[in-house]
Amino acid sequence: MKQTENLEQLLERFTKRIVQIQSKEPTDKTSEQLHYLRGCKETVEYLMTGKLPNDGNHDGMKHHKPRHGGDLDAL
Questions:
Q1: Cα→Cα distances 52→29, 38, 55, Å
Q2: DSSP 29-64
Q3: CB 48 within 8 A of CB 10
Q4: Is 48 exposed, middle or buried (0-12, 13-18, 19+ CB in 10 A)?
Q5: pTM of the full predicted structure?
Q6: Contact predicate 21/33, CB 8 Å
């Protein structure tokens, strides 16, 4: 059974795969894969640092420490 990867390993894997996909000829499929992988990478970066993606949807929100746990009532 494979051990669960840590966040640094996931970030490295997503970054490597993004470079691989970018080197291919652009198609609808590669564009979709890149969009998905960038989202995965941004999620891992957020979990590591609390840094929100700079995609225009999070303007005005300050970076913060991610909340871990299942207490959604506190939101």
A1: 26, 13, 9
A2: HHHHHHHHHHHHHHHHHHHHH-PPP-SSSSTTPPP-
A3: no
A4: middle
A5: 0.68
A6: yes
**Cβ–Cβ < 8 Å for 36, 30:** no
Report d(CA 37, CA 18) in Å as an integer: 7
Q: Is 68 exposed, middle or buried (0-12, 13-18, 19+ CB in 10 A)?
A: exposed
Q: Are 27 and 68 in contact (CB under 8 A)?
A: no
pLDDT per position in the chain (75 positions), as tens? 567 788 999 999 999 999 999 999 999 999 999 999 999 998 898 888 877 776 666 665 666 676 666 555 555
Which two three-digit tokens encode residue 47? 């979990």
Quick one: tokens of 45? 């970066």
